[in-house]
Automatic annotation (TrEMBL):
InterPro entries in the cross-refs: DNA_glycosylase (IPR011257), Endonuclease-III-like_CS2 (IPR004036), Endonuclease3_FeS-loop_motif (IPR003651), HhH-GPD_domain (IPR003265), HhH_base_excis_C (IPR023170), HhH_motif (IPR000445), Nth (IPR005759)
UniProt xrefs under HAMAP family: Nth
CDD domains the UniProt entry points to: ENDO3c
Domain HhH-GPD, first and last residues per copy: 39-188
Keyword Lipoprotein carried by entry: no
NCBIfam families on file: nth
GO terms of molecular function: 4 iron, 4 sulfur cluster binding; class I DNA-(apurinic or apyrimidinic site) endonuclease activity; DNA binding; DNA N-glycosylase activity; metal ion binding
Record-given protein name: Endonuclease III
Pfam families: HHH (PF00633), HhH-GPD (PF00730)
Organism: Niabella soli DSM 19437
Length: 221
């Protein structure tokens, strides 16, 4: 199977089986999504969704969050990973949005990454989810799944390299959705330690599965 054939197969599969894929983070507006994505680094969406309602109740918008003190905000997110850093990042982010962007969440990657706590991955999430821009956020799931399937070379060692390869081979209008396809597939099927290959619909296109068949290594099943 050529690379183009592999991409075509994978995209057709997800379009048929996961046509409405979207983030599992719960949010109502760009501000809430930005807070949730900052909190989600090295943390599960489930834990973030349990935490954000209390934050949004006390700090419903950028101006409110910009006035938060560390001691007031920290107790609300202490169950999240790296709560000290994330508390500072959230307050700093809100203050920068207020003073540098007139209180409006910017919607370009270069602008977003100037905010505390916002790296390229977070900026790609915000712009692709809110504005459906053709930006591919590469988290651990996307990094792992795209390599296992064979969408990108296993020799690629950085999220940025994987991002560029995926963007080069996926139609721009599908990139924002492909991000969720790969994340959800990695979260529920192509898991890190025990991929659920027997129930996966991508077997025909997946290099990982095909190599296991050739070696007679079906221990994962």
């Amino acid at each position: 199977m050529t690379k183009k054939e592999r991409y075509d197969f994978v995209i057709r599969y997800f379009q048929g089986h996961m046509p409405d894929a979207e983030t599992e983070l719960v949010y109502d507006n760009p501000y809430q999504l930005l807070v949730a994505v900052i909190l989600s680094a090295q943390c599960t969406d489930k834990r973030v969704n349990m935490t954000t309602p209390f934050i949004f109740e006390k700090y419903p918008d950028i101006p409110a969050l910009s006035k938060a003190s560390f001691d007031d905000l920290f107790p609300l997110i202490k169950s999240i990973s790296y709560p000290n850093n994330k508390t500072r990042h959230l307050i700093g982010m809100a203050q920068k949005v207020l003073t540098g962007f007139n209180g409006q969440i910017p919607m370009t990657v270069p602008e977003l990454i100037t905010l505390p706590g916002v790296g390229r991955k977070t900026a790609n999430v915000i712009t692709s989810v809110i504005d459906q821009q053709p930006n591919m956020a590469v988290d651990t799931h996307v990094f792992r799944v795209s390599k296992r399937i064979g969408l990108v070379s296993r020799q690629l060692t950085t999220p940025l390299a994987v991002e560029k390869e995926l963007i080069k081979n996926i139609k721009p209008e599908l990139i924002h959705k492909a991000h969720h396809w790969l994340i959800l597939h990695g979260r529920y099927v192509c898991t890190a330690r025990a991929p659920k290959c027997p129930e996966c619909g991508l077997q025909q296109a997946c290099q990982y599965f095909q190599n296991a068949l050739k070696k007679g290594d079906l221990s994962f099943s």
